[in-house]
## 1
Amino acid sequence: MPPDTTQTPTASAAAPAVRRVTVDEGSAGQRLDNFLLRELKGVPKTHVYRVIRAGEVRVNKGRAHADTRLEIGDEVRIPPVRLPERPVQPEAPAREFPVVFEDEHLLVIDKPAGVAVHGGSGVSYGVIEALRRSRPTAKFLELVHRLDKETSGLLMIAKKRSALVNLQDQLRDRETGKTYAALVWGDWPAKLKVIDVPLVKFVGSDGERWVRPGKLEEPEAKRSISLVKVVQRTPQFSLLDVTIKTGRTHQIRVHLQQAGHAIVGDPKYGDFERNRELARGPAKFDRMFLHARRLQFTHPATAVEMALEAPLPPECEKLTKA
């Protein structure tokens, strides 16, 4: 007899099946559509909303709407949906970071420069993936806000959805204070204390995402406000405290650069020649000097006013004394 060449279907080729997911504390209070988008990563939004409208998604065996709020213990029936095949990404290595504050609601770390906050855009993983790997029993860990990969300093991670919603509301309503230490080239003008310049995001010819100064009449322009205080002057540099009143992408970097004083070491908007000389010179300084040093907010559960600080990293401290 000829050999049997019939192949057993692999798990990946198996037809998708109905799933029933019980809502836990990490998902309580979330809208049904957002819950499904997380559970069905990679499935187009249009398809997710279509199965909701068709009544294929059930909550506690009843029909539900996209804006239905889920509660702990709810059972969500997720219909068979074929997930798109995605390339296998390397697993994030487990890693902890210096803890500035932690309780059952919130974790605040001192992020090192050179580490992305999350995977994406060519980065396989970042802080949040590494933390989840190092804390496998944690039910909920989500970024409250973001820092650029090149920026060091204070980063908030919510440990409960209620904390995430509360803190993001504070950020949106400008009820938090975020102050950054920035070292810039040259002598910062003493009279320049407020930068109120709109910013526009765009994709350059290189395919990279960029930000430029804009005008308020431009449809894409977002009003952006930074408050600047000179902390120290040296023959080459000015050390600034920059408090942002809005949280736009690359806000500080572009605001300082458009004022004629780029941040030392900035690889995107900086003075590339001088940055190269600094990295190759005696200082061996090869990072961007932008550090989220102070964070003020109201604790999401206790309503206590919090003020957290992270000292300058040693390499930054050394450069200010050069």
## 2
Amino acid sequence: MKIILLDTLTFGETNLSAFDNFGEVETFQTTSQEQTLSRIKDADVIVSNKVIITKEHMKSVSKLKLICVAATGMNNIDLDAAKELGIEVKNVAGYSTDSVIQHTFSMLLYLIGHSRYYDEVVKSGIYSRSPIFTDVSKPFFEIKGKKWGIIGLGTIGRGVANIAQAFGADIFYYSTSGVNRTDDFQRQNLDELLKTCDIITIHAPLNDKTNNLLDYEQLSTCKDGAIVLNLGRGGIINEDAIARIIDEKNIFFGLDVLTKEPMVQDHPLLSVKNKENLYITPHIAWTSVEARDKLIASTIENILSLK
């Protein structure tokens, strides 16, 4: 078989040598829409993380048998066209669950503990000139006894809930699908969850029900000092609303996902005044070494199932 990997830059230093066992392998670090067709024209198997594969692409590749999505979401592939043309499409689910859960707590603890401020206090030499041994200028709170609201109680949301419960938090959840029900945690409507929870974390997919779920009106109801984290998908929170409210009210935001990625250079979040209340990471929650190894191993299994 001839296997084409279209965007290997997203895999970092992950070992890709197992693909060589299938035959001829051609790799590209990135692939633009203009380059896609010429690169896949002789492929039996395409491996793509974020490169869009359209019906026109598929119709032009006579040997194409399988499209491997090296991710969970398959929105970059025209699935209806693939079905019509008899081309299999296989994704990988669950590979990054532990990584995303861990990054949720990494973001939370960074914001709760005012890590940016205290790191700069020490490294700037301010602490060396202090008349006392400690610095209590930025109070932080404990997770224990706080109300933690989870938007999207899937596998990741439930994993976060279990660890948050071990910290001593009281867990509440809002089901974005309306389907998830459990006796383990307390279900709330979205308005009540936003108004009453000290910590709010989002672990939901982007769809018609979650697009722009939290706009200015909803965010303005959050408690003073609340922390809101989005580790689901960009577009669930209105980023313009965040840029506005973060300078009006004492709310902390942590974002690992944005509506457009990479972030646009003139993004309004880059100009907020209250920068200490904002922590943004470049869509890295899924990228632990272990998660990427699992991703590639599962992609290999998807190709093996074709033989």
## 3
Amino acid sequence: MIFSKRAYFIFTFTMLLLIVTSYFTVDKSISLYFIEHADIYKQFGKTASMLGESHWYIGIAILGTVYSTYIKKNELYKSRFLFLLYANIFSGFISLVLKMIFGRLRPWKLENGEDSFGFLITQNPEFSFVQNIEYHISMMIQNSTHYTSFPSGHATTSFAVFTFMSIIAPKYIYLWLSITLLGAGSRILANDHFVGDVLAGALVGILSTLFICYKLKIYPHKSI
């Protein structure tokens, strides 16, 4: 294990606290600001969001694995590419499952004077618990894109790759962090995610990658 159990607990607890605090304090106001100034920020956000698209990293990982396994055999690089592949697949799967479970409305539900904010299960307080569950499932089937804001999949990927790069090349950690914050933060500028969604994506991406690192027995001191 890279860190102590206590360090994992403190990190997870702190991130969860930030996510909850963000939801009740700044999520809505920050998204409304970027909605109002979409002409300035949205296109840049959409472009920079490409940094958080998992298919780039999965593709690189697959090509790298094939190359280091069959063309120019190198066990060290093979293990690294497999690490990158598994980290992206696993973190992406966890993120997708959480999206379906939480069913959070996207920021664009605040556009054009609308005031739809929160989670599907909280949209109809007059419903019973069972009715809210049925409504949640129904809306996810009809148009899941509108209700999969939490956590941010792009942020999950960005922080998964950040954790991966920080483990194999820690001396460039500030470079990786800068690229990661650009890719993850762009989701807020693009009006596709709230601050809390990005924080949740960071939590999922980091913990998922550390879990894969532990399972694959990748050691941080073996860096480039």
## 4
Amino acid sequence: MKSVNPKYANYALCREMLETVEVIRNFKTADLSKPVQSMKKTRKLFLTGEGSSRIFPAKHTINIIQKNNFPLTVYTEGSRQAAELKLNDFTVFGASNSGKTNELISLFKNRPSAGKFALTAFRETPLGDLSEDTFVLSCGKEKAVAATKSVIEQALFYHHLIKAYIGADCDKSLSDLADKAKEVLEMEIEPAMVDIIANSDMIYFAGRNNGVSEEATLKTNEITRKKSAYLEGTYAVHGIEEVMTDREVVLLIDPYKEEEEKFKEVLVDGVGMPVIAIASRDTLFPTIRIPSLCCYDAYLQLLACWNILVEVGMAAGVDLDHPTRARKVGNEFKG
């Protein structure tokens, strides 16, 4: 997916994906002292929002905290479910590009918490009016329906928020991440792999519960107009194989080496379906090899999924920018 190729440059979706490289390279945050002070007081963080503004940014953040055993309790749920919880002792962050997401505004209006903060793409929004402080993304407005560069910047924001909380610096890695992001977005996907995915009746994503596979599942619907499902952990080999067919495909993201043989036995040998891996190493399956960068692999895996889905969407002949039913703001606040 190269910007100099009109095949891609004609689509806002592709342009925005490619703009992610410079969003990463130039990423900065405003003063984080208010939310960090609140987090140090509560030692509890709740990340909420809807759709792409929550899935990868929030789940990736939780994964970072759990893997490093940082002294912070973090949860995420959609805004309606969050409204059923007691958040009085939590610092709450709500992410909404428009700042007009109805469910999130309702939560901020009606549920007390120890601190409310907004992450938006615009200033002076209804969500910002309900927050102690608003942090505005620098990536600019997205024209395509599918959120892309904003998702990465939201995740980077939370990543830096956590680093600020523990007193660490992660800016020095951003240049390397930007270079590798460009490599992943511009890498050529083997046409044979694209054909397999484009001709499938169903695309499954299997992998860790860190937001990558789940976000790629959503992007599949918006970009390729194909049905998709996220199979967490070993779900793909724990019963669903009963109804899988050889007309479907599994994209296995960064598989555990210890589980590859079982996936091959159940899905490839048993069902007869293709399995394609996305990883920084060779696997038992046809593999889309991507670079690795300590602490940032999930970003590169998601970008690889974008690249694949663009090629699949183009192979399927769909208009990448204009889904028939999907909307930029799922449920907009009208007050």
